[in-house]
Structure to design on (441 residues):
C-alpha cells in the first residue's frame, strides 16, 4: 500500500536534502511535487490543496528546529500534517460503559462487510470480549450462510437468522439470544446493495433507530479511491456514522481514500483491512500511517508485533548478550524462530525504517531456507554453537551430513551469522550515532 506515493515523496525529499538551505523557491518546487504525488495517489483535490498550503505556511515560518537539517524539517512538517489530516490519534471502538455493546456494519455489496464482521469478531475476542455475529442481509441468502460458515471457522457464535425474517426482528431476537448465551458484543452484518439507494438507506435508518448501536461503521473498499470517500459522505449524511473501515488496503490501492476520508467526512478511519484472512484487520493509527507513507517504516507496528512474539525476559537476556558481543549461533537460531513467529520475513522487513520498497519487491525470500538453517545449527555440537571459529572443513562436512544439507549451505549460514555479528559490533561501538545513520533521512 502507498508504494507509489512513498517512492514519489522519497525522490522529492532526496532533492530537498541536496540543498544546504531551504528557501521559498525550493520549498515551493518541492511542494508542487508533493501535491502532484498526492493527486496521483487519488487524494481528494481540496484536501491535497489544503494540506499543501498548511505545509507551506509552516515550512516558511520560523518553526526551525536546530537539531534537524532543512530536509528533515520539511519531512517532519509533512509528517505532522499528514498525521493531522488523517485524524491525529487512533480512534478506538467505543462500545459504551454498559454490560453490552454493538457494532452495526453498513456498506455496499462486495466492500468486504461480511469478511470484516468475522475479522471484528476475532479482534473483539482478542480484546477479551465475547462477540456474537448477526447476519441481517436477508436479501442475499448466501450472505447469511457466509457469515454462519465464518462463525464455524472462527468458533464464534452466530445468530440463526433465516431469509424469511424481517431485519429489525432479527436484530431484536439476536439481542435476546446474545444475552442468553453470555455474549457482550453484537456485530450486525447488514444488507448491501450494488449502488446507493433510498430503500436501503431507509431500512438502515430504521434498524439504527431500533437497535441503537454503540458503533455504526461504514465498510468501504479502498480500491475504489475517491468513490469510497463519496460513499462515506452519503452514508454519513443519512446515518451519522461513528467511523469507517477501509478494506483491501493490502492491494494496489493508491491510498487516497485513507488520506482523505477524515478530512472530507469528519469521521475517523478506525480500522483497515489488509488481507482476505481473518487476521487481516488492523486498528488505524494516523501517525503510523504517515510514517509509513514517508518511508520512515512502520516502526511502531513492528515494535508491537515484536512485543507480542518476544518474551520480555528473553529480550533482556538477548540485549545483554548483544551488548557483550556474546551472540552465539544458538542465539541466532532462537532469534530466527522468534522473527518467524512475527510473520513472514518480507512483512517484517517492510516495517523497518529505510527499507527500499523496490528492493523488497524483488527480494525472493524462501522461507524454507529457515528450516534448513535451523537443521544446520541443530546438527552442531554445543561447543561449535558457542565458538563458530572452530568449524573447519571436516566439521562442516559432518554438520552438512547430519542436517541433510551441503557444505555450501553451512558456509552460507556461517557467513550470514558473521555478518550479523559485525553489524552488532558496529552498533555497540557507535551507539545512538550509528542508529541515527540508519534513519532514512
Ligand atoms: P460483502 O459483500 O461486503 O459482504 O463483501 P465480502 O465480505 O463478501 O467480501 C468481498 C470480497 O472481498 C471477498 O472476496 C473478500 O475475501 C474480499 N476482501 C474483504 N476484505 C478484504 C481485504 O481487506 N483485503 C483483501 N485483499 N480482500 C478482502
Amino acid at each position: 500500500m502507498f508504494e507509489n506515493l512513498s517512492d514519489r515523496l522519497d525522490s522529492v525529499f532526496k532533492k530537498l536534502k541536496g540543498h544546504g538551505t531551504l528557501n521559498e523557491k525550493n520549498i515551493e518546487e518541492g511542494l508542487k511535487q508533493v501535491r502532484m504525488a498526492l493527486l496521483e495517489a487519488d487524494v481528494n483535490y481540496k484536501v491535497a490543496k489544503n494540506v499543501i498550503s498548511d505545509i507551506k505556511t509552516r515550512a516558511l515560518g520560523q518553526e526551525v528546529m536546530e537539531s534537524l537539517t532543512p530536509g528533515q524539517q520539511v519531512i517532519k512538517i509533512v509528517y505532522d500534517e499528514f498525521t493531522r489530516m488523517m485524524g491525529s490519534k487512533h480512534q478506538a471502538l467505543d462500545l459504551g460503559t454498559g454490560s453490552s455493546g454493538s457494532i452495526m456494519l453498513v456498506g455496499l455489496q462486495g466492500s468486504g462487510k461480511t469478511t470484516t464482521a468475522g475479522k471484528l469478531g476475532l479482534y473483539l475476542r482478542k480484546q477479551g470480549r465475547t462477540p456474537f455475529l448477526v447476519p441481517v442481509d436477508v436479501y442475499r441468502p448466501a450472505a447469511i450462510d457466509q457469515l454462519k460458515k465464518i462463525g464455524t471457522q472462527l468458533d464464534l457464535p452466530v445468530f440463526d437468522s433465516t431469509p424469511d425474517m424481517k431485519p429489525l426482528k432479527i436484530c431484536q431476537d439476536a439481542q435476546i439470544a446474545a444475552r442468553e448465551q453470555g455474549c457482550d458484543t453484537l456485530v450486525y452484518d447488514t444488507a448491501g446493495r450494488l449502488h446507493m439507494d433510498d430503500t436501503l438507506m431507509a431500512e438502515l435508518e430504521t434498524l439504527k433507530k431500533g437497535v441503537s448501536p454503540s458503533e455504526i461503521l461504514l465498510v468501504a473498499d479502498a480500491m475504489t479511491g475517491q468513490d469510497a470517500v463519496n460513499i462515506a459522505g452519503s452514508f454519513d449524511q443519512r446515518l451519522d456514522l461513528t467511523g469507517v473501515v477501509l478494506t483491501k488496503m493490502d492491494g494496489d490501492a493508491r491510498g487516497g481514500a485513507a488520506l482523505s476520508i477524515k478530512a472530507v467526512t469528519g469521521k475517523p478511519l478506525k480500522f483497515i483491512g489488509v488481507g482476505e484472512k481473518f487476521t487481516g484487520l488492523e486498528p488505524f493509527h494516523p501517525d503510523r500511517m504517515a510514517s509509513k507513507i514517508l518511508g520512515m517504516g512502520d516502526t511502531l507496528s513492528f515494535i508491537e508485533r515484536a512485543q507480542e512474539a518476544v518474551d520480555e525476559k528473553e529480550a533482556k537476556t538477548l540485549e545483554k548478550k548483544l551488548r557483550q558481543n556474546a551472540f552465539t549461533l544458538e542465539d541466532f537460531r532462537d532469534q530466527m524462530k522468534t522473527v518467524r513467529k512475527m510473520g513472514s520475513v518480507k512483512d517484517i522487513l517492510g516495517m523497518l525504517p529505510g527499507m527500499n520498497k523496490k528492493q523488497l519487491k524483488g527480494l525472493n525470500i524462501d522461507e524454507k531456507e529457515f528450516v534448513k538453517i535451523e537443521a544446520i545449527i541443530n546438527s552442531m555440537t554445543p561447543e561449535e554453537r558457542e565458538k563458530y571459529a572452530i568449524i573447519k572443513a571436516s566439521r562442516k562436512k559432518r554438520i552438512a551430513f547430519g542436517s541433510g544439507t551441503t557444505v555450501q549451505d553451512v558456509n552460507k549460514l556461517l557467513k550470514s551469522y558473521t555478518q550479523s555479528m559485525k553489524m552488532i559490533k558496529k552498533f555497540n561501538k557507535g551507539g545512538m550515532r550509528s542508529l541515527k545513520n540508519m534513519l532514512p533521512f
